[in-house]
Design goal:
The chain is mainly alpha-helical and 260 residues long. The protein contains eleven helices and no strands. It has one domain. Helix 2 runs antiparallel to helix 8 and helix 5 packs across helix 10.
Length: 260
């Protein structure tokens, strides 16, 4: 007789809800702007509600985000660990973007002497200007109001969507392909903006040798690159990226299976 454990007694839908809740909470808690805007308890409650909405527990319809068809405790724990890793991978770009903007504004503050007190007296610790704090909250508001959060939610559900469509698509391959394609699409405009600003600064420095714009243009280049990257992601939100990728992945996987 098989051993009865909590992993085999609890319904699959409940484990799916737990996995999605862990994934959402991990993706949101590592973003400094989100973590600073609300307490961790409130963030946990929001993650529970979003996980409940995603997994659709209690609905007559089948679970849309996949089921944790786990018969052993090892498989269930691996599923939870996978959700934790996916949450980190999804939330890390947003966290880096927030720190990117904060660093750019701190460079601007240092250039105009706004943090001279911190440099003269290290006992004061790290001080953030109101402009830096307002910009971090403004980035969070702009990302939410412009629909950028839909990209995060689609990325959280993408492994389940691809697996349900193809049936046998490895999730590691799915995450790798999505991160590579989206990364190339988002990085290209940002690199172009940075190159254009560098070329313009080099032309000005050539005409005016005493003017060194490299340090002054650094925060401008960082902020404009971040704005362009967010704009590109918002444009991608209007394209059925997930559906097209799922169909393409399923077709490629079936072709590989047929050829083998």
């Amino acid at each position: 007789m098989d051993e009865v454990t909590v992993f085999s007694v609890v319904p699959n839908a409940l484990w799916s809800w737990c996995a999605l809740t862990l994934r959402v909470f991990t993706a949101l808690v590592i973003i400094p702007a989100v973590r600073g805007a609300m307490p961790v308890s409130t963030l946990g409650a929001v993650s529970v509600l979003l996980g409940l909405q995603f997994s659709r527990i209690g609905c007559i319809q089948p679970v849309a985000c996949g089921t944790m068809a786990s018969q052993t405790s090892e498989e269930a724990l691996c599923e939870l660990l996978l959700s934790l890793v996916c949450g980190v991978l999804v939330g890390l770009p947003s966290a880096v973007a927030g720190e990117f903007l904060t660093t750019a504004l701190e460079v601007g503050d240092a250039s105009r002497g706004a943090r001279s007190g911190e440099q003269l007296n290290p006992l004061l610790g790290v001080t953030h200007s109101p402009i830096t704090q307002a910009a971090s909250l403004g980035l969070l508001i702009a990302a939410t109001s412009m629909g950028f959060h839909h990209i995060i939610f689609e990325a959280l559900l993408l492994p389940y969507s691809a697996e349900s469509a193809a049936g046998f698509v490895p999730r590691a391959m799915t995450l790798a392909l999505v991160s590579f394609r989206v990364g190339v699409v988002v990085a290209a405009p940002v690199i172009v903006v940075g190159l254009l600003i560098d070329i313009g600064g080099a032309m000005v420095s050539t005409s005016l040798p005493r003017v060194q714009l490299h340090y002054e243009l650094l925060p401008v280049k960082m902020v404009l690159g971040l704005v362009v990257g967010v704009w590109v992601l918002c444009q991608l939100d209007r394209v059925p990226l997930v559906e097209r990728f799922v169909q393409h992945t399923a077709a490629v996987s079936m072709g590989m299976a047929g050829g083998g």
